[in-house]
Amino acid sequence: MNMSAKGAMMTESYTMSEEENAARIPVSELWEGVLLLSLNGIVDSAQSQHVMDVVLNKIAETRARIFILDIRAVVAMDTAVANHLIKITQAASLLGCECVISGISPAVAQSLVQLGISLDDVVTRVTISDALSYAFDRLALQVVSRGNNIP
């Protein structure tokens, strides 16, 4: 096999790997203009950079106006990851999308404070529900009950 064929195979396998990785980062469209990503476990710098790529592409693709990043299941966060999350919010803003971070646990909050990470310019909410309510308010949407039709 010649070098160009090997290069083409490596490029193809890299592309497939990127597509597979994007599928592992499930950015969901909750409502028209509202995206959600729930992170969990331990997030490292390489993962957070990939998250940024996937999120920004999804924002551009859907023309989302609000992106909710839920981190309630994140168990550990270092300075690099926290900075990546802030960069995601800043980059999304450049695309016309406002970010809301929900689910900051007491442990992660303490870590962020100890690391000197400021979220002053970032909207935070306690739960996904609170973040979604905020998104609806920002988009001037209203959920109206049709009555109690559920048996």
Automatic annotation (TrEMBL):
Keyword Phosphoprotein among UniProt keywords: yes
UniProt xrefs under InterPro entries: Bact_StressResp_Reg, STAS_dom, STAS_dom_sf
PROSITE patterns: STAS
Keywords per UniProt: Phosphoprotein
SUPFAM superfamilies documented for this protein: SpoIIaa-like (SSF52091)
Record-annotated STAS domain positions: 24-135
Any single Pfam family the record assigns to this protein: STAS
Residue ranges the record marks as coiled coil: none
Protein name: STAS domain-containing protein
